[in-house]
Fold this protein.
Amino acid sequence: MNCQDARRFLPAYVDGELAGLDRSEIEAHGASCTSCRAELHALSEYKLALRAALAAPPAPAHLRTRVRAEIASTRRQGRGASFWTARIGVPLLAAAAAALVVVWPRAPRPLFVEQARQDHRRDLPVDVSGPDPTRVANWLQPRVPFHVVPPVMGKAQLLGARLHRMEGHDGALLVYDLPDDQARSHKVSVFVFDPQGQDPGSELRDRKRVGAREVYLERRGGYRSAMFQDDGLGYVVTTDVDEDRLLRLVGGR
Ligand SMILES: [Zn+2]
């Protein structure tokens, strides 16, 4: 199995939908490939967070009472097996236990940057078009709870912006186009948000100083993100150029 195949199967693997040969093949690949392993961690953490966010509301009181009564009566009748094994059966319990086993070693996984990368890859429409930063700022002004000034990103041209939300933070997603020396264009996504006293970038180990800014860096699956704070706001810049160019963008050059 190569990386391309592994990436295709990762979502199903994380959801526990793979069995037999597929499962062992992907595990064998993961054992020897650090980049797919990192991808797997990002994906599983992302899904866990999603699941937690979408967690089912508690069962209604009458249902809980009935289940409790059922458990008590099963115990009284002394059927030997516990309520759970009697009702669900051993194979399902074994499967549930197996799902808890972490197959690959844990690696640090910055959730915020992972979402930034996924949002960057989706072609989300803009609510307001560029390239005039004042026009974009004026459109955002009444819609975002803080004042967003589209940052100058070197030679990158502002294409537009949209209202956006990441990891519980409301903000604006700005999209730029950066041409390279071969006249190829690179999309640059900039999420501007109120960090509310948190520092999402502190999850990242790699950091560099750009001018007066402390910039946190993360590279993942062909994309790089830079995270920094400026004047009380948080910025996450995601694109597919090399680190030098990214740092120049962040430095406004
Ligand atoms: Zn791989």
In short: The beta strands are 128-129, 157-166, 169-179, 185-193, 206-210, 213-220, 223-230, 233-239.
